[in-house]
Amino acid sequence: MNARLSAGLLITALLVTGCGGGGGTQTATTTPKVGLITKTETNPFFVKMKEGAQKSAQANGLELMSAAGKFDGDNASQITAIENMVAAGVKGILITPSDTKAIVPAIKKARDAGVLVIALDTPTDPQDATDALFATDNFKAGELIGQYAKAAMAGKPAKIATLDLAPGVTVGQLRHDGFLKGFGVPAGDPSVVCSQDTQGDQSKGQTAMENCLQKAPDINLVYTINEPAAMGAYTALKAKGREKDVLIVSVDGGCTGVKAVQSGQIAATSQQYPLKMAEDGVKAVADFAKTGKKASGYTDTGVTLITDKSVTGVEAKDTAFGLANCWG
Amino acid sequence: MEATLPRRLITTPVAGPTIALVLASLFFALNSPQFLTGSNFSLIIQQVMVVGTLAIGQTLIILTAGIDLACGAIMAFGGIVMTKLAVDSGLPPLLAVAAGLAVCAGFGLVNGLLVMKISLPPFIVTLGMLNVVFALTHIYSNEQTITDLPPLLTFLGQTFQIGQTNVTYGSLLTILLFLLFAYLLGSTAWGRHVYALGNSPEVARLTGIRTRRLTVGVYTLAGLVYGIAALLLVSRTGVGDPQAGQTDNLDSITAVVLGGTSLFGGRGLVIGTLVGALIVGVFRNGLQLMGVPSIYQTLITGVLVILAVAVDQLSRRRNR
């Protein structure tokens, strides 16, 4: 009885699996495939990226396979995904590497098997470990909000808090350095009174800002790695009644973030375009499948400063444009 | 005769999982032309060997009615110790590996001593240890991934040919480890003592088993096995990665439970754990080949775990 029951339950599970597959598996042999591997499955940035890949795959007559790590930094799952996609016979793989160094040997194996590998959003270390890179210029993204902040402060002496990403992550480092360059201060300048890691997380951003305000109550400019961190900072400032006289600038351009710019909680943000990264990446794989020509080098997918309080000397678009082009 | 087969299926906890593994494999073979190939099976074994090896240690501990939440973290630290000593400190690779194994066994020993001496619940001890070891890994590695490993550290990731199929030495080692522990648990006095301890520590003690020493021994041995998993991980990925293993504690428990070992101790087989690990690997690989997004793999693994525990509970009720 019990054996039969357990077998029955397991068969049911298998049937459930069948439904999850959603059919369409028999066409697999004819349509060329493209794989997309993101850092996680749930971050809106990657959801949008997958949407762009799906749309572009349909338009270019490719079948999209997707996979993701379980958490940001999950290298093992990305390796497994690469292996499985190569086994499934993909023409090309688009990957947002979770660990820019640790993924390199697995990418090399895929390329040795004749698969075109393109990094999206985040370059590998070294960058030429992939055939090509489609990404935001993160340094420029930081530089833009740095220039904006410099103009918006209008000569007022700055006490800066930087809410950064995490140690050793290139994207975070580039945005931070770009911000300082744009603002015109060297690294280690005394005007940067507090720097904290937030993992780009709202609640960690809030905690970081609270701690920064304990350390230096007169902070008047906050750089944040992304808008969730910025919203965390805003919440912390609001609790102190400081939300009106502190300038918050950010990078990313997600829809929630642009709305926060619209409502004035964040002064300005640099918007990036994950949809375009994925669309262009899939198209490059389609070209490779048709012509055998591999994409190479770095393709800048663009970044735009979004603000409703524009300053002179820094080019920007308003939040209407931001909302029309946002992700998430 | 009719009554004996189901009866035997109930008393052999590995039967259900094995049936599930076979059915799942059949299902994927029918749905994906790439599934049923030697190279794909070799791939699946490579993909499950790290969690599978961790799950050997986890099985030992769960058989004593304990649990280990720190196994993935201990492995990650072991991997960093091996790679950092060999690459940054220039230690001979063999010594670096030995140091990594010793460090992992050492953490196992500490876990065992805390469980035994202070009678803390294993869940709490290993939860604390998870955080301690995680932090130590990040401090010691300075958040840096270690690359350019000497050949000895990546040897287990190298392949040899069986027929047309490339097999890694690590896969072979993993299977040998499973056979070794199946023998140790099934055919030695030590193995019987482990089961007895899990069934009832009090009865085990009264029958003359030195339960405290046995407990410390099991945790230490599990730690050593995590060290071997660390070497497998390093050889598979080709780097020392401080971020590694973060969900492997739960993945190893998943393999143990799917393999029919009872979370309440004293009941289960280490070969079941291998089957459990393979079930997860087969689903992940098969669904990927079919083009199903990975979030469904998580969904299905969750459903399978609940089913496995339900089957365990139902069969216990039946046995009573």
UniProtKB/TrEMBL annotation, chain A:
Example of a GO MF term: carbohydrate binding
- Tell me the protein family, please: Belongs to the bacterial solute-binding protein 2 family.
Tell me which stretches of the chain form a coiled coil: none
Task: Please classify the protein's predominant subcellular localization into one broad category.
Answer: other
Write the record's keywords in alphabetical order, separated by commas: Signal
Domain Periplasmic binding protein: residue ranges: 34-293
Q: Return the GO cellular component terms, semicolon-separated.
A: cell envelope
- Matches recorded under InterPro entries: Peripla_BP_I, SBP_2_dom
Q: Where in the cell is it found?
A: Cell envelope
Q: What is this protein called?
A: Mannose-binding protein /fructose-binding protein /ribose-binding protein
SUPFAM superfamilies, per the entry = Periplasmic binding protein-like I
